[in-house]
Amino acid sequence: QVQLVESGGGLVQAGGSLRLSCAASGRTLNNYAMGWFRQAPGKEREFVSAINRSGGSTYYADSVKGRFTISRDNARNTVYLQMNSLKPEDTAVYYCAARFHLGYSNNYYTESWYTHWGQGTQVTVSS
Questions:
Q1: Residues 64-112: tens digit of each pLDDT
Q2: Nearest Cα to 7, choosing from 20, 25, 26, 24?
Q3: Cα(127)–Cα(117) distance, integer angstroms
Q4: Half-sphere exposure at residue 21, Cβ-oriented, CA atoms within 13 angstroms
Q5: What's the confidence (pLDDT) of residue 20?
Q6: Are strands 121-126 and 92-100 parallel, antiparallel or unpaired?
Q7: What is the pLDDT of residue 27?
Q8: Tell me, what's the pLDDT at 104?
Q9: Is the pLDDT score of 52 beyond 90?
Q10: Please, what's the b/e burial string for 96-118 (b: 16 or more CB within 10 A of its CB; e: otherwise)?
């Protein structure tokens, strides 16, 4: 089993930056597709970004494209989400997700496709 632990959340002013980390234990992440989702108060959890197992393909929600960058370091068993130009509407709990996956998929955007989840980290952007 893969255990995922997010970190790096916090309070930041609009226009600022944060880098979230998702550290895995129990398995190496080499064969796992990874995703970031977020859930704002009163809203459903939504896709933010995903990366395939090699890091060669990345996917973003339109709302974060050009501002957020996902990356992974398989040697460190960690996935990152660099968030720049943050806006108050980015305020949410951010969750890391993983799924063992070796090939191509068009399901990276789908919450139910992922099989392992972290506990989440709070990101608050003040105006």
A1: 999 999 999 999 999 999 999 999 999 999 999 999 988 778 899 999 9
A2: 20
A3: 30
A4: 9
A5: 98
A6: antiparallel
A7: 85
A8: 79
A9: yes
A10: bbbbebeeeeeebbebebbebbb
Mean pLDDT, the chain, as a whole number? 96
Residue 50: both structure tokens together? 């995903």
Which amino acid is it at 77? N
Query: What is the C-alpha to C-alpha distance for residues 76 and 79, in angstroms, rounded to an integer?
Result: 9
Location of structure tokens 């992922």: 114
Q: Which two three-digit tokens encode residue 56? A: 């060669």
Integer Cα distance of 5 and 121 in angstroms: 9
Amino acid in position 33: A
Tally the residues of the chain. Answer: 127
Q: Are 31 and 53 in contact (CB under 8 A)?
A: yes
Position 84: which residue type? Answer: N
- Judged by DSSP in three states, 88 sits in helix
